[in-house]
Amino acid sequence: MPAFSSLCLQLLRAAALVGLIGLTACADMSKSECAQADWRALGREDALSGQTLARFARRSEACLKNGLPADRALYEAGHAQGQAAFCTPARGRDDALAGQAPAALCAVEPVGEPYRQGHAAGLQQFCTAPSGYEYGRKGGSDHQVCPAELAAVFQIGFRMGHELYELNQRLADIQKQAADERAVLADTKTPPDRRDTANRHLGQLDADEAATRKLIRQAEFSALSLAQPGGAASPAPVPSSGVAAEWLPGQWRLASVSFSAPVDLNRDGVKSTDGMSELSPCVRDRQLDLEGDQRAFLRVGVHTTGCLPVNQIYRWRTEEGMRQEVRNEGRRRVATERPALFLRLRGVRDDEVPAMVVEDVDATYLIVRTEMPDGTGATREAVATYRRVGR
Fold first, then answer.
1. What is the C-alpha to C-alpha distance for residues 81 and 78, in angstroms, rounded to an integer?
2. Rg of the Cα trace of the chain?
3. How far apart are CA 387 and CA 391, in angstroms?
4. With a cut of 50, which residues of the chain have pLDDT below it?
5. 66 phi/psi in degrees, rounded to 5
6. Helix, strand or coil for residue 42?
7. If DSSP codes are grouped into helix, strand and coil, which group holds residue 237?
8. CA of 384: how far to CAs of 173, 189, 242, 287, 307, in Å?
9. What are the pLDDT digits (tens) for 197-250?
10. Is the pTM of this model over 0.70?
11. What is the CATH architecture assignment of 241-389?
């Protein structure tokens, strides 16, 4: 068989392993390939790579354009041999354990029945909360292959694992940015203004890394119960009102902001999840003072030269409740609830700052999740990290 066809078949086999059917770049056959084609062998090889009989139509069309016929009977005979070798119980089970939908090649009766039985058995093992967690933690995509009676349990684990995956991706990105800035500082040729920018950015990245590591620990804690078969997910611990009363009072300076999706607040045409790079210097200069008598002061631009200082007075309180989380999974919107501690600020005219969910608070950092303007007239969820001042 010509080398080009062999290469395409190898690519098609690799595609079948990840659930991709058909590579358009390999759809055409050259005149010489059509002239030398072993149609029985081609049919078998296509079936072994997971291709249905529809593949023959693309091959024959290419050959007809070159004035050469394609032998459908030989192709179908070879394809039937390859189909029987492909649609085994072992392959069905492996595809299910990889989170893949049943292969279209094995939908044909009766040759596909062994494969489908293996796939159904594999789903019984795959569609569990612990398996969903591991699959999501490794960055797998939910192809919604679980039967209805197992889907809800699988989703519990998958959502928790995928959240941990995204947090670890964020942490890796933060660490890469920090390494780049440290390289800038280590370069003796770096201009003073760039050195100042690198130092400021490193401070933000340090705070963002601390916040992300705490969120990772919370996600890992939530998943502990999944280690036991049939274990139900337990919510990560959240600060109580008592803990908040002890640690919240104080002065808090904004150190980092991470948006849930890229935004372009500074209108430079480049979107980023790093809110501090998108906010203006005056808006970055944000301080929240929470007094022991429940008074709160929101100060913006008071420490930055050239900014118009803003000082707003509120009353603050904490409130324990449930927080709804909505995420898109394929074409579905899935809503879940978890316990949360809300920090609420209300002004003298009953104006309120968007509610902040306190993810963590201690002697050094206050980490909140809240809605912030995204530059389009709407808001987007963001994690804001404040560093305590003067303690």
1. 5
2. 29
3. 10
4. 1-27, 229-232
5. -95, 10
6. helix
7. coil
8. 17, 34, 22, 12, 21
9. 999 899 889 888 988 888 888 788 777 766 554 444 555 566 777 778 889 999
10. no
11. Beta Barrel (2.40)
Give the burial class of 198: count Cβ atoms within 10 A of its Cβ; 0-12 exposed, 13-18 middle, 19 or more buried: buried
The two beta strands, 332-347 and 272-274, are unpaired
- Residue 211 tokens read as 């916040």
Q: Which amino acid does the sequence have at 383?
A: V
Question: What's the N-to-C CA distance of the chain in angstroms?
Answer: 75
Residue with tokens 């091959």: 59
| Burial category of 380 from C-beta neighbours within 10 Å (exposed 0-12, middle 13-18, buried 19 and up) | middle
Q: Residue 391 carries which side chain, given as an amino acid letter?
A: R
Counting Cα atoms < 13 Å in the Cβ hemisphere of 133 gives 22
Two tokens, residue 138: 């490794």
Place of tokens 């293996």: 118
Angle at 253 between CA 249 and CA 258, to 5 degrees: 115
Picking from 258, 177, 213, the residue whose alpha carbon sits closest to that of residue 364 is 213
Q: Where are the domains of the chain?
A: 3-125, 148-227, 241-389
Taking the C-alpha atoms of 70, 71, 76 and 81 in order, what is their torsion angle to the nearest 10 degrees?
A: -110
